[in-house]
Amino acid sequence: MDGHTTTKVVLLSCGSFNPITNMHLRMFELARDHLEDTGQYRVVKGIISPVGDGYKKKGLIEAFHRLEMARLSTENSDWITVDSWESLQPEWVETSKVIRHHYDQLLAAEKSNDDDVDTVNYVKKRRVEENYLNELSHHTKKDGPHLMLLCGADVLESFGVPNLWKQEDIAEIVGFYGLVCITRSGSDPNKFIHKSDMLWKYRKNIHVVHEWVTNEISATHVRQSLRRGRSVRYLLPDNVVNYTQEHGLYSAESEQKNADVVLAPLLRYSGASSS
After folding, report:
1. Could you tell me if 80 and 28 are in contact, meaning their C-beta atoms sit under 8 angstroms apart?
2. Are strands 41-50 and 80-82 parallel, antiparallel or unpaired?
3. What is the pTM of this model?
4. Which tens digit of pLDDT belongs to each residue from 36-85?
5. How many Cβ atoms sit within 10 Å of the Cβ of residue 58?
6. DSSP 8-state code for residue 242
7. How far, in whole angstroms, is CA 194 from its chain's centroid?
8. Are 31 and 180 in contact (CB under 8 A)?
């Protein structure tokens, strides 16, 4: 259509990737097809950001293994990449801050096309702004690249778990950046959105993508199969399967890691004042 321009989109997926599965990768393809089918968007990049060890989730193996498996899984992709920034942080980083980091990188890359702009100082200046979201709203979101969080229905529904997310973080993620949610069998994201006043408020920023080819690959079940010496071929990329075998990952012992530790967000938000 003459005069019609599409908005460039980068998809960011944050999670444990413990281990990364074919379904994690499939989500990117589904999201890209859905967004581009609207005629409004052109997906230019996908980013996988494994969570750091500080998240303290039960059974979470070391970040360097999860990072390497994610890198192996994307070797044949010409648009999905893996970023190590989140996984290298010494403490758990809220998803909202991870998204801000990547959005800053996007804006800095856009600004680098202008020789008159000092991108390093530009990002530093943005970081010291008192009201981050108000400052963001004055930048070229409509004309520049969009960053959207890509997730499964379980992540969307986790917004309702007490002390797992800060309400202001949910508002920032969904209200400013936007969300692409992939459905799974037995989940109904639209019903959850309808029940939540905040998600309903920002419902136009939530893209619900239906996966009609049922795919129930679960990282939890994959780990169980690996512990029991069962085949996980065709559930994970072949080079990831080989990596788990070479390094002897996912044993009964590794599944008990952090078993007696409180999950980082619950520890941070339960009975503690927001900061």
Report:
1. yes
2. parallel
3. 0.89
4. 999 999 999 999 999 999 999 999 999 999 999 999 999 999 999 999 99
5. 12
6. H
7. 23
8. yes
